[in-house]
Amino acid sequence: MPKTELQGSLELLVLKILRRGPNHGFAIASYIQQASDDVLRVEAGSLYPALHRMTEAGLIKAGWQMSDAGRRARVYAITPKGLRKLEADQKRWHAVSTAVSKILRA
Q1: How far apart (Å, rounded) are the C-alpha atoms in residues 103 and 49?
Q2: What is the DSSP string of 46-87?
Q3: Which residues share a beta bridge with 1?
Q4: Residue 32 in contact with residue 12, Cβ under 8 Å?
Q5: Average pLDDT over residues 72-78
Q6: CB 64 within 8 A of CB 74
Q7: Partner of 21 at 20 to 30 A CA spacing, among 82, 83, 85, 94?
Q8: φ, ψ at 60 (rounded to 5°)
């Protein structure tokens, strides 16, 4: 299956996933792939820089925890600022997708 570029929606997807609870990068990427029925795939080279930018912006926070496999894993959690951005971005995304759908149906 071809890779689909997320173009600007990666941050929205990450925030939505972290709203469900803290998680590590590999789990975030796996969830995006599984929930999209393998249509969306996030490469580490895109995800980890995005997580870093989002941490720097105060949208998420990061900390180290021990994984189930006994290794240290960097775990990310959404912040109140991230929750506010998620709500605003979701509204914007729904408005844009509704507009695109109307055009495609015409």
Answers
A1: 34
A2: HHHHHHHHHHHTTSEEEEEEE-TTSSEEEEEEE-HHHHHHHH
A3: none
A4: no
A5: 96
A6: yes
A7: 94
A8: -140, 160
- Both tokens of 46, joined, read 């895109």
CA distance 95 to 73: 36
Summarised one tens digit per residue, pLDDT across range 42-58 is 999 999 999 999 999 99
- C-alpha separations of 76 from 12, 32, 38, 61 in Å: 14, 15, 23, 6
The CA distance from 41 to 32, in Å, is: 7
CB 2 within 8 Å of CB 36? no
Question: H-helix or E-strand containing 75?
Answer: strand 72-78
- Length of the chain measured in residues: 106
Is residue 12 classed as helix, strand or coil in its secondary structure? Answer: helix
Residue-wise pLDDT for 22-32, tens only, equals 999 999 999 99
d(CA 18, CA 78) in angstroms, rounded, equals: 6
Distance CA(32)–CA(13), nearest Å, equals 8
